Amino acid sequence: MSQQYPPYPPAGAWPPGPPPGYPPYPTPTGTSAAAFASLVFGLILCIPGLTGLIAVICGAVGIGATKNPAVHGRGMAVSGFILGILNIVLWGTVGIGAAQWWKMTVPQRALGRQFITDLSQGNKDAAIAECTNNVTADQLDQQIDWFKTRGPIQKTMVFGNSIKDANGAISGAAYGFITFSNGQGRSFNLRLIDEQGTWKVDAFQFQ
């Protein structure tokens, strides 16, 4: 007698389910790529704001994807989303603070730049008008001669700050770096005093 075999399943029905009495085959699972990317970008702070924004977007996508039980990585998506928000808030705070500082130091930077320009061009009278009585004419003559030996200025980078002490007196500084046309570079530091609303150079040093 020939052995009888079960018929092949119809098209589209493969693979067949497990035999009766056995648990169903496990559903294929995986980790959301968006969730993983969200966590990675959330931990990166090197690009202000941008990595945080990418982390938030990928985190939202990852959270949505992990609603499917077959997709893992919800914890990474949530963590990346939160880190992305913190990233944006952190760099936003830093950016606002830097912008306010830059705006508040406009007078100090303007005085520092003009004082250096006058010295480099030998305009002693203008430099004297920009200084307090603590700066002597001989000091200015020496500094003008110092600039003459170095040639024209190609670029000046100036930063500034101001401080109010316990007695209400306001002082500040202008500092930065000078690049000359011959390629040489020198740093400088100007001590500033606020005299009745007008900033003056009280001392200077060029290195």
Q: Largest sheet, order of strands side by side?
A: 3-4-5-6
Count of domains: 2
The helix content, as a percent range, equals 40-55%
Name the CATH architecture of the largest domain. Answer: Roll
What is the global morphology?
A: elongated
Major β-sheet annotation: 4 strands, antiparallel
Topology pattern, helix = H, strand = E: EHHEHHHHEEEE
What does this molecule look like?
With 207 residues, this protein is α+β, with helices and mostly antiparallel strands. It has 2 domains: 30-102; 106-206, Nuclear Transport Factor 2, Chain: A. The chain has 6 helices and 6 strands. It has helices at residues 33-43, 50-65, 74-104, 106-120, 124-129, 137-148, and strands at 30-31, 71-72, 153-164, 170-180, 185-195, 198-206. The strands form 2 sheets. The protein has a 4-stranded antiparallel β-sheet. A hairpin with a 4-residue loop joins strand 4 and strand 5. Helix 2 (50-65) runs antiparallel to helix 3 (74-104). The longest helix has 31 residues, at 74-104. It is elongated. The N and C termini lie far apart (109 Å).
Any key phrases for this structure?
207 residues, alpha+beta, Nuclear Transport Factor 2, Chain: A, four-stranded antiparallel sheet
